[in-house]
Amino acid sequence: MVNKWQKMPRGKALEILTAIFKEGAYSNILLNQTLEKSQFSDKDKALITELVYGTVSRKITLEWYLSHFIKDRDKLDPWLYYLLMMSLYQIIYLDKLPDHAVVNDAVIIAKNRGLNRGKEKLVNAVLRRFLRTQRPDFQIIKRINKRYSIQYSLPVWLVKKMIAQYGEQRALAIFESLFVRNKTSFRVANHEKLKEIADFLEATPSLLSPVGLVRTSGNVTKSDYFRNGEITIQDESSQLVAPTLEIKGNEAILDACSAPGGKTVHMASYLTSGQITALDIYEHKLHLVFENAKRMNVSDKIKTKKLDATTVHKHFPKDSFDKILVDAPCSGIGLIRRKPEIKYQKKADDLIALQKIQLQILSSVCQTLRKGGIITYSTCTLFEEENNQVISLFLETHPNFKQVALTHPLKDITKNGFISITPEQYYTDGFFIGQIKRIS
Question: Which contiguous run of DSSP H or E holds residue 302?
């Protein structure tokens, strides 16, 4: 009977959820690590994945439902509360799972996980009462921002911010899209092999990237194509960054915030005699860049250096680089679909604090760029404070630079010379790309 609950798919999902909610673990990393070394079947792994992402994604909504059935959540052990949340997620959102199976497993987990007797009785009582009772309607919430917060499981500040920037209709479309499970997207190193790889891996061409392929599910990292460095996991929106630099082959390029190296190796694929200097503040992250470059057969084009990007001008002389990529540290709001816990961790104040760092990085790296050189600035966030406002504020204080207007065949992702992608458009990460050029 010892640890029996951990051998159940729902028990393992509960274990992962507890680490995410209580210890701040990253859902995608912990889930991948756990499933990689587990003995669960593919079917069970799919269930665990669904339960983890689904429960985290709907956390605020599930808490609201539970508040109608539990008077004081603080009196419950955290794991017990998470078990109830996970069970409600299945009952409300997963039609193919029988309610009796959900309740039965929850009771078994509570009985085996709880040190004190009686936990299983509480779980059984709450879940059966929920099944017997008509569910509360979101429409009873009078304040509209609060209602959307509960309905779409987003902090109120995030709801207000999105509506203010995008308008209510588009904001709601973005909110809805965040519950659509993330696609598997990957970049093909050799464009000529695109069809061959697409056919073999049963993938479809990306609508955004001419070298991208997508699958609704499945693990392509087990394929020979991945092992041989012919493909690499990279979101479609991220694949648009390297081409904006129009790399000829012989340039000296700085990647100011390079880890884990997806864009670094993409840039390196265009080089012949050129070299990329890839920076990050953490040694273990630079190791990821090196491993990525090695697998993609471009490690000879990349040298890594542990360095804070806000201090680049102190370590490299003027005119060191022809081109620079600043894939800036940001709030990551565009990644909510595959990292749903992000939305609960960020605050409105973070945007201005991050803007300050983003400007510091640009102000430092620009001092090492040659005349005529370009800087591509990118983020995986949706807010103007971290995107076009950063470019505008930089240009106000750097008259020797001007904006370069970026284009793309899909006109709905370009505006005012920037590439700006929101999650509901092509069900990718939310992403922003801007570019500036040194003119004197």
Answer: strand 302-306
